[in-house]
Design brief:
With about 180 residues, this protein is α+β, with helices and mostly antiparallel strands. The chain has 3 helices and 7 strands. A 4-stranded antiparallel β-sheet has the order 3-2-5-6, with no helix packed on it. A 3-stranded mixed β-sheet has the order 4-1-7, with no helix packed on it. The longest helix is centred in the N-terminal third of the chain and has 34 residues, at about 1-35. The radius of gyration is 33 Å and the shape is flat. The relative contact order is 0.09.
């Protein structure tokens, strides 16, 4: 009986070692697969200057943010990369589109740069009233009548320089569309 118990214990021990060995081999294989990574550089398409703080995320849940030198590293296995930053156009890329290690982003034309607001604390206990004189009220309610020399100047300005400005804006927009088509 004792001998049968020893055989059962030996068999259980061998099975545990076998299962543990397979699990260890799987963990090693997974760790080797996850150690395969790739480093990229994100640059501004107009200046070729590296861009920092670009948020990069993939469809398999990886996230990264570019460093001061525009670099980031991702583990292999992703299917789609998405790049986003308030000052740049959002870009989505597939692994087949990655040619080399440099990724170019187009600056957002209407992005606000840093905005700093300063203010003073006001007392909330005081009641704020704004008194208006009767002249101010009349000026606010009246509408100008008759000839307007400033309106004539604005019309002349638009006729002379307005076409040039509109043409310049149209050319910029056309160039931007061409860049986006080739992006």
């Amino acid at each position: 009986m004792n001998r049968l118990l020893n055989h059962k214990m030996m068999f259980a021990l061998l099975m545990a070692q076998s299962v543990a060995g397979k699990a260890l081999a799987q963990v090693k294989a997974d760790s080797l697969a996850s150690e395969v990574s790739r480093t990229f550089v994100v640059v501004n398409i107009e200046t070729d200057v590296p861009v920092r703080d670009i948020l990069v995320y993939t469809d398999d849940g990886q996230e990264a943010r570019t460093n001061w030198d525009g670099t980031f590293t991702l583990h292999e296995g992703y299917g789609r990369l998405t790049f986003s930053h308030p000052a740049y156009e959002k870009r989505i890329m597939l692994p087949e589109e990655l040619d080399g290690d440099t990724i170019q982003l187009i600056p957002n034309q209407f992005a606000l740069r840093e905005v700093v607001i300063y203010g003073k604390r006001r007392d909330m206990d005081k009641e704020r009233t704004f008194a208006m004189s009767s002249t101010d009220v009349q000026l606010m309610q009246s509408t100008p009548q008759g000839f307007n020399p400033l309106g004539l100047l604005a019309l002349g300005y638009d006729a002379i320089w307005g076409k040039k400005i509109r043409h310049r804006h149209a050319m910029k927009e056309q160039k931007r569309k061409m860049i986006m088509d080739n992006y």
